[in-house]
Design a protein that fits this description.
The structure holds two protein chains of two kinds.
Chain A lengths: L2 E4 L3 E3 L5 E8 L8 E6 L5 E8 L4 E4 L8 E5 L4 E6 L8 E7 L16 E5 L2
Parallel strand pairs in A: 2-10
Antiparallel strand pairs in A: 1-3, 3-8, 4-5, 4-9, 5-6, 7-8, 9-10
Chain B lengths: L3 E4 L2 E4 L5 E7 L7 E6 L6 E5 L3 E2 L7 E6 L2 E6 L9 E6 L12 E5 L1
Parallel strand pairs in B: 2-10
Antiparallel strand pairs in B: 1-3, 3-8, 4-5, 4-9, 5-6, 7-8, 9-10
The chains are: A mainly beta, B mainly beta.
């Protein structure tokens, strides 16, 4: 079974750094893109960016470029999303999702359960 | 960047009836259009890809159509578990891969 397991909820203060994770199992991790999607409280889905674990090719949404860093450690089938200095506006649920192959790289299935990040002073 | 617009924002339908949700792309996405379902407290789930192909395990009461810029998701004979938020998303070419703002399907 293809599965994505995400790290647990985080509560942080503004200005702190954070790195959350997404571990893939049940498939060849290096051969599928991994995407990150933000969902702010009560709002819709926003594609943040994605990474191809085999060569670390990374693409960002213009809205998130420079705000977050996406990385991966293919030796442990894990992708990461990190912030160097959190803001209150980063409070959201963050999902990872597996992209498809080739022209379907932007088709996301399955999704991880999400990591809730709360940033508050 | 392609902008996806869904309508209506909220639709109220009685169980057993049919629901029709719409999605429009600001430019042609060919058939590279997906629909996702999100229930409260859950991650989104892929329902439809290629504009009209049901994902694995999706019941036949879910159907979809369209190409280019206009797309429709139809749920016939609504079940209680179908009341959720539905998002469309284009996935063609390179990113950014934008989602529609969602349509909330609620019980009438």
């Amino acid at each position: 079974e293809v599965q994505l397991v995400q790290s647990g909820a985080e509560v942080k203060k503004p200005g702190e750094s954070l790195k959350i994770s997404c571990m893939g199992s049940g498939y060849s991790f290096t051969n599928y893109w991994i995407a990150w999607v933000r969902q702010m409280p009560g709002k819709g889905l926003e594609w943040m960016g994605m990474l191809y674990p085999d060569d670390s090719d990374t693409r960002y949404s213009p809205s998130f470029q420079g705000q977050v860093t996406i990385s991966a450690d293919k030796s442990i089938s894990t992708a990461y999303l990190q912030w160097s200095s959190l803001k209150a506006s980063d409070t959201a649920m963050y999902y990872c999702a597996r992209g498809g192959i080739g022209d379907r790289r932007g088709l996301f299935d399955p999704w991880g359960p999400g990591t809730l990040v709360t940033v508050s002073s | 960047e392609i902008v996806m617009t869904q309508s209506p924002a909220t639709v109220s339908v009685s169980p057993g009836e049919r629901a029709t949700l719409s999605c429009r792309a600001s430019q042609s996405v060919s058939s590279n259009l997906a629909w996702y379902q999100q229930k409260p407290g859950q991650a989104p789930r892929l329902l439809i890809y290629g504009a009209s192909t049901r994902a694995t395990g999706i019941p036949a009461r879910f159907s979809a159509s369209g190409s280019g810029t206009e797309f429709t998701l139809t749920i016939s004979s609504l079940q209680s578990e179908d009341f959720a938020v539905y998002y469309c998303q284009h996935y063609g070419n390179w990113p950014p891969y934008s989602f529609g703002q969602g349509t909330k399907l609620q019980i009438k």
